[in-house]
Amino acid sequence: PVNTDQWIRGRTHTITWCENGNSPAVDIYFSSNNGSTYATQLANGVTGTSAGTNTVLCPGVINEELSWNWAIDPGTALTTGGKIKVTRDGDATDTVYDTAPDAGDAAFDLLAGVTLATPATSTIIRAQQPQTITWSVSGGAGLGNVRLKYCTTYTANCAGNPSAAQWTTISTPDASNLAPTPATFNWDVPD
């Protein structure tokens, strides 16, 4: 992860590191306190999935970019101080291949999340016709209230940009501060 990442409990996220050929296997640890301690071992003896050598992340012909997918347990503690440590297999206190976010960076966030269930992204929503919106909460307890927004120029402005100015909070009725459950909202679509 990098320091701008916000990973969601209950989902799978990829941990990536550089390896220089000295160890075929690594152990992977998680810290929820900015790296003060790495009390949670996520995996041991992992060889990782190769993305090749001399990549953007791992420049140089002897450096191989490897990755492992972490299926984050929904019960993992929420934190704004998440860090990952990759060490030589069986040696948690010795050789650290990589810590993430990269040295000097801030930590990543581990959050509960929301996934839109309906309407499907391909649904055409018509003005002045009611629309039911449903979602699911992943990652268990710890999610604050949710805000529902829409974008009328999604492809041009909003796709992949959750902070785009074109996102508009639903106001018919007000959807700016909804409890995460029940996970349903009836929208009176405006003109």
Give an overview of the whole structure.
By secondary structure, this protein is an all-beta fold. It contains one helix and 14 strands, in the order ββββββββββββαββ. The strands form four sheets. Strands 1, 3, 4, 7, 8 and 9 form a six-stranded mixed sheet that branches. Strands 2-6-5 form a three-stranded antiparallel sheet, with no helix packed on it.
Q: What is the element layout, followed by pairings?
A:
Layout: E1 6-8, E2 12-19, E3 26-31, E4 40-46, E5 49-53, E6 64-71, E7 79-88, E8 96-100, E9 108-111, E10 113-118, E11 130-138, E12 149-150, H1 154-158, E13 168-169, E14 184-188
Parallel strand pairs: 1-9
Antiparallel strand pairs: 2-6, 3-4, 3-7, 5-6, 7-8, 7-9, 10-11, 11-14, 12-13
